[in-house]
Amino acid sequence: MKTFEELGVRDEILKAIKEMGYENPMPVQEEVIPYLLGNNNDVVALAQTGTGKTAAYGLPVLQKVDPESTDTQALILSPTRELCLQIADDLKEYSKYIDHLHVLAVYGGSSIETQIRALKKGVQVIVATPGRLVDLMERGVAKLDKVQNVVLDEADEMLNMGFSESIDTILEGVPTDRNTLFFSATMSKEIERISKKYLHDAKEIVVGSRNEGAEKVNHIYYLVQARDKYRALKRIADYYPNIYAIVFCRTRMETQEIADKLIQDGYNADSLHGELSQAQRDLTMQKFRQHRIQLLVATDVAARGLDVDNLTHVINYGLPDDIESYTHRSGRTGRAGKTGTSISIIHVREKSKVRAIEKQIGKEFVAGKLPSGKEICEKQLYKVIDHIEKVEIDEDEIAPFLPEIYRKFELMDKEDLIKRVVSLEFNTFLNYYKNEAEIESPEEGRKRDKKGGKEKGEKRSRVAEEGYTRLFINLGKKDSLNPRDLMGLVNRNTSGKRIEFGRIDLMKNFSFFEVPENQAKDVINALRGADFDGRQVSVEISEPESSSDKGSSKGGNSSRGGNGGDRRRSDRRPSEKKRGGKDPMAEARRKGRGRDKDEQVSVKRGKGKDKGKPEWAKFFEQDFGDTGSKKRRKK
Q: Is-above-0.85 flag for pTM?
C-alpha cells in the first residue's frame, strides 16, 4: 500500500490531512490523485459515497492552485446545498496551511449579494450548485476563463435532478484545455453522453464494479401488508436499540407524516424534505450528526449529497421507482470499510422491483422475518442492563446522599431491587408488546385482494395521494422512458422550479405520474409543445374512475376495458356535448346494456368499433386490450 507522500501530495497538505486522521490512501485516492496531478488528464470515476472521493479530487486540485493569483482556477459542482457546504469545509481543512488560498461555496437559499462580494475579492476554488453558478455567470461575477480543473461530484444525481442544461452552460464557459473529472455512483446514458462531449480520452476508474451497490452493505427486505408498514418500521427500530439510520420515503407528505408519528411514539426522530427552510434543514442535520436524532426521515431529493458517517442502517419505507436511487440510498451506509444494512419494507407488488435491483447491483436480498414482541423485549432488556453496567459513578458527589438511599432500600433484597431498576425503563416496551399482535407476511399468489374484493389480474383504480394531482403523459416504455427520464423532462421544462414527484406508473404506450396540486398546471403548461426524442409530448390531468362511470351489470364489478381506473378530463367528445348534454353511457345504463362507454358510443353511431374513440381509450386498449367488453359478451 502506498502512502500519500508516494502519491506526490505536498507537505502543507500532508500536515493538514494527518491532523485530520488520514493515514493511508483509500483505493479511489490511490488511483485518482497521481493521475489528476498531471495535465489534460480527464477522469470518469465510479465510486460510492463514503469511498474517500472528496480527498481523491480535492488534494490534487488544491495542490495545482496558484495562491498568488486571485483568479478562479478550480470549479467543483455538487447537486445540493448540503454537499456543497461539506465539500467546501473539507477543502478548507485540507488547505489551511496554504497561505492566501480561498475556497468559496455558492448555492441557492443564501444571500447572493454576500457571494458576489466574496467573488469580487477573488477566490481560487469555487464549490457550487449548478443553478446558482449559472446565475452568477450571467451576472458577469463568476469568471471562469482561467479555470484549470473542473469536478462534477455525484454527477448522476445532478442529471437526475434536471441540471443537464445548466451543466452544459457551465462547461461551455470554461477553457477547453482543462482537467475534467466526473464522480458518479452509477454510469448512466446521460453521463456517457456528457463525458463524450466534454471529456477527452477520459480514463475510467472503477471502485468495485460498474453500477454496483456498496460492497459491505447487506440487503434485507420485509414483506408486509401496506397497512402494517408503520408497525413494521417501529419493530425494526425497537429491535436495534442503537440504530442510527435514514428512513427514505417517496413524498414530502409521507415523510412528515412518518416523522410526526415516530416523534409522537417517543422516538428520537425528525424530518428532512423540500418544504423546510435552509435554517431548519441545517438545524436538523446538525442534530443528526451529533446523534441527538436516531432516525432521520427524508425524501430522496432532500437527502441527496448528505455525507454522514457511521450510519448503521438505511431503511426504505417502500422502494424507489428507479434502481439508481436505491443504489444511492444503500450507499450511505457500509462506508469506510464498515458494514451496513439496507432494509426495505415492501408489499407483494414490489417483489418484482427487488428482483430487478438484485440483477443490477449484483447482490442478493435476504427475505427477513420481523422480530416478535418477545425478541424485541429481550433486546431492550439487554440494552438497559448494558447502560447500567457502563454508567459512570461520581463517588464524591453521590457520597452525601448514600446513607438516605441505603435506608430507603434496606427492606428490599437484591433481587427485588434489580427487578425494579430494570423495569423502570423496560416497562414501556413490555406493556406495548404484551398485547401487540404479530405482523404476518401476506400470502403471495393469492386469488383475491382482501381489501378491495377484486379478482387477481383486474386493474385497480389509482387515486392520487392527498395533496397531489395525477397526470397522464403520452410516453411509455416503448419510448424508452424511465422514471429518471420523466423527472428530468419535467425539471428541464419547468424553468428551474423544483418539482416533487409522487407515484410514477410506467405503461407500454403511456404513463401516469403525480405532482403537488399547486404545481400541476405549471407542469402541464411547461410540457405543452415539449419534445422527447423527436416525439411531441402531451400531458393532461387524469381522474380516478367514479362509480357513476361503471356499468350496471350484475355484481357491480364489471371491467372497464382494462383502463386501470384512470380517465382524462378530456375524455368526453365534443359531439356528445352538442347533443344537449346527453350521455350515451347513461342511456345505456338505463336500458341495462352494460356495455363499455366507447362501445356504446360506437353502436349508437352505427360506426366501426375504433372510429371516433378518444385518444386515451386507444392508448389503454394498446396496453391492456379491450377486455371489458369481451368479458361482458361472454356473460
A: no
